[in-house]
Amino acid sequence: MQHAGTDEPDLQGTHVLVVEDDLLISMELTAVLTDAGADVIGPSHTVADALALVDREDISVAILDVRLGDDTVAPVARGLSRRKIPFVFYTGQGSNDPLWREWPGSKVIPKPSRPRSVVAAVADAVNKPTPFRKS
Predict the structure, then answer these.
(1) What are the 10-residue block averages of pLDDT along the chain, 135 residues in total?
(2) How far apart are CA 90 and CA 119, in angstroms?
(3) DSSP H helical segments within 7-83, as ranges?
């Protein structure tokens, strides 16, 4: 990924939780989202750390890697859902992952993606009504 340009949607004032176990990818996501005006929470590299952030932070939206080492990010997605916080998945996982059955309508950003695709998906998740949040 390259850094986001000025033609990206504005994420000013948006608190984005980044959950990604790959250090370089998490650093790049942080840079892309920060360049778009977001305040990044984390990044978190484990399910336990991410759950702690979900419980204590003011989060507008989250971007979640599907696999964190050998663990699934499902507990984090469930915690976000309970708090009515929208999220998008950022993954290289295929369409056969069991996670897709639990969140069949979720936005999935494939790895790798261009910065504008990541920013647009996050902006869309913040602004789009979800099953637990109406516009």
Answers:
(1) 50 96 96 96 96 96 93 95 94 74 85 92 83 43
(2) 12
(3) 23-35, 47-56, 74-82
**At residue 16, what is the residue type?**
V
Residue whose pair of structure tokens reads 């650093």 in the numeric block = 27
Give the per-residue pLDDT at 130.
Answer: 53
In residues, how long is the chain? 135
Judge if the upstream peptide bond of residue 43 is cis by omega within 30 degrees of 0. yes
Q: For position 49, what pLDDT does the model report? A: 96
pLDDT of residue 10: 84
The b/e string for 53-92 (b: 16+ C-beta within 10 A; e otherwise) is bbeeeebbbbbbbbebeeebbbebbebbbeeebbbbbbbe
Question: What pLDDT is stored for residue 104 in this prediction?
Answer: 81
Write down all domains in the chain, each with its CATH number in brackets: 15-127 (3.40.50.2300)
Q: What is the token pair recorded at 91?
A: 């993954």
How many C-beta atoms surround the C-beta of residue 43 within 10 A?
24
